[in-house]
Amino acid sequence: GAGVSQTPSNKVTEKGKYVELRCDPISGHTALYWYRQSLGQGPEFLIYFQGTGAADDSGLPNDRFFAVRPEGSVSTLKIQRTERGDSAVYLCASSLSRDSTPGANVLTFGAGSRLTVL
Amino acid sequence: QKEVEQNSGPLSVPEGAIASLNCTYSDRVSQSFFWYRQYSGKSPELIMSIYSNGDKEDGRFTAQLNKASQYVSLLIRDSQPSDSATYLCAVRSGVRGNQGGKLIFGQGTELSVKP
Q: Which of A42, A56, A112 sits opposite B105 (nearest CB)?
């Protein structure tokens, strides 16, 4: 697609429920990133993929969080047993590659998915 | 120590003035540095990237990089009310050779340009 598409734009759920957030990156972008942003804070790194594999998942806060990218394009962030502290805007971004060549690693962000856990 | 540090602000400047935004980072091997602008309720958008020591100019924006001091700055000349936003410094960290690395963001500096 022309831009990074994230769905849903808003999700309200109850504590303890399971949530999936979807990201469709820019066509041809091999690298995909998930961030979480709380009010007044910068984006907090969660995980990034190069192709189908998770190249770095060191930012996932605990084992309730999991992300997949089975075909190297669309990615899903999965949160189990949601807690109120999970409430945030979840941002997805993609880049042409993870190569450090100038320009290739510039991230383009989607509009985000706002998650509210009641 | 946070990996990327910025003053949270708010930084208030009058219209037409120069706004100066600063950022320090901890990973000495970082090679790629970015400034993103984020309007309230919107997602970050790239305004500048810089990879080499020195200055890089793009219109009213100038990014400055000093790898020895691990310092990046952004200057906005002739500031306009439409520049009012949060400015995020981002550094590519954990790079091995020419591959890999995740983009780490600072907490952002809120800029307010008063007419």
A: A42
